[in-house]
Design a protein that fits this description.
Elements (H helix, E strand, L loop, with lengths): L9 H18 L7 E10 L2 E5 L6 E4 H7 L1 H5 L6 E8 L7 E4 L1 H18 L2 E10 L2 E6 L2 E6 L12 H10 L4 E10 L4 E5 H19 L5 E10 L2 E5 L4 E5 L20 E10 L4 E5 L11 H4 L5 E10 L2 E7 L2 E6 L11 H4 L5 E10 L4 E5 L11 H8 L20 H7 L42
Length: 454
């Protein structure tokens, strides 16, 4: 209908405005997959009518509303603004079908795209698995993590072992990074391996910033080496040197720890420049030397196995974390007798306590005085420990290098840990113990002969 505006009646002008408005609405015809803002016009039992500015109102079916939960439906009021998803611009009955649940799905796809662009990390729950990898729930979208992107798997993992590992991960929350988004194909691919590396880097920075010496943490044993144990603190690894694992002698960390074990550790040093954390388990345990004088006294007889035999004497384990030294001069009345001629590691011996120093954690023992009827006085014992091979009668068979005196040995040797050759490597000289990790391990070097950190 064509109307000249200068001759039109008011009714014709009103019809003209409405026609132009309809033309504008037709120009913005709704398309499948669009998000539109609208107003709730009517709430019925079989759905909700919503006006989105088109010639006809759209309907949100009741089954779609039920997926949103009763709270959403009960909170709706006529006249409330609402955002809807165009599910079907026109079905067989000519209806415009809208959806609320798909609004959330569309926003989830937008969020996935944002994470893909920005490289962010998200936590998702594993809801299943198949031969190829893991199925995860990303809000209202189902995503897929290929087996090659699962952190604990590698190319050498056997097929059966791989399936068992994937099955164990069901119901776990894992960190993931979006590596592919294709909404048209409904394809969302994520990677745990990339996310773990990103997450560990962020956690390491946080730990190095927040931790202080003296903090007590829970951790998990990650790997055992000849010189200590790497403990996962939740994003960064710290090193507990072998000398910091226990008060007793430890020849290898596997004697007291196993991979995966949960432990309590004390932070003893933090090197933020080199990104290393030094830990100790020993310092959280009672020190048996603190109460040693309550259990032992001069002249007392003790029995235990020989733990080490050296040219200057033999060490005897008096109790679980206490060792005493039988100096070579206290083995036999014959000064030419060599320790290895009388004692062997593992041999059970009975010796007499002739010196005890709680502060320096030293205990001197004597084998040749075991049968004495009365223990010698402290002065006599002191004199005996200070005797040197120079005090003994010289013979042609005496070695050129004199055996050090007992006090000299105790002053320079910790009975609990005896230095071996070659010396244990420092942590900074050790390669990263985690396979497939691209960052350097957090570690620290601790001397096996001191209570401090080098």
């Amino acid at each position: 209908m064509t109307v000249q505006s200068d001759q039109a009646t008011p009714e014709e002008l009103e019809e003209l405005d409405w026609t132009q408005l309809l033309d504008a609405y037709d120009y913005a015809r709704p398309q499948r997959g669009e998000l539109r803002d609208g107003l709730i016009m009517q709430i019925e039992e079989n759905g909700v009518l919503v006006s989105i500015g088109t010639k006809r109102e759209g309907v949100i079916p009741s089954q779609d509303l039920r997926q949103m939960g009763d709270d959403i439906l009960e909170g709706m009021q006529v006249g409330d603004p609402i955002q809807v998803y165009i599910q079907d611009p026109e079905n067989k009955e000519g209806e415009l079908i809208l959806s609320l649940t798909m609004v959330q799905v569309a926003k989830d796809w937008e969020e996935a795209g944002r994470l893909f662009q920005e490289g962010g990390v998200v936590q998702c729950k594993v809801i299943g698995f198949n031969k190829g990898g893991l199925l995860v729930q990303f809000n209202r979208i189902r995503g897929f993590v290929p087996a090659s992107q699962v952190a604990q798997l590698h190319g050498r993992t056997a097929a059966e072992e791989r399936q068992q590992a994937l099955q164990r991960m069901v119901s776990q929350e894992i960190p993931l990074k979006v590596i592919e988004v294709d909404r048209d194909r409904n394809r969302l691919v994520l990677s745990e391996r990339s996310a773990t590396q990103e997450w560990r880097k962020a956690q390491k920075h946080r730990l190095l910033t927040e931790l202080q010496p003296g903090d007590v943490l829970s951790g998990r044993v990650n790997q055992l080496t000849n010189f200590g144990a790497f403990i996962d603190l939740g994003g960064a690894d710290g090193l507990a040197h072998i000398s910091e694992l226990s008060w007793q002698r430890v020849n290898h960390p596997r004697e007291v720890l196993s991979p995966g074990q949960e432990v309590k550790v004390l932070v003893v040093e933090i090197d933020r420049d080199r990104e290393r954390i030094g830990l100790s388990m020993r310092r959280l345990q009672p020190n048996p030397w603190d109460t040693i004088d309550q259990r032992y006294g001069l002249g007392q007889l003790v029995t235990g196995p020989v733990t080490n035999v050296t040219p200057f004497g033999a060490f005897v384990q008096v109790e679980e974390a206490v060792e005493g030294l039988i100096h070579a001069s206290e083995l036999d009345v014959d000064p030419q007798t060599q320790p290895r001629d009388l004692l062997q590691p593992g041999q059970i011996v009975t010796a007499r306590v002739i010196s005890l120093d709680r502060q320096r954690q030293r205990m001197g023992l004597s084998l040749r005085r075991v049968n004495e009827s009365e223990p010698e006085s402290e002065g006599d014992s002191s004199a005996a420990t200070e005797a040197t091979p120079a005090d003994q009668p010289a013979t042609a068979d005496v070695a050129e290098t004199p055996v050090p005196a007992m006090d000299e040995v105790l002053a320079t040797t910790t009975p609990l840990v005896v230095r071996t050759e070659p010396p244990l490597p420092h942590a900074e000289d050790v390669a990263s113990p985690i396979a497939d990790a691209e960052e350097e391990h957090v570690a620290v070097s601790v001397s096996p002969h001191s209570n401090g950190v080098e």
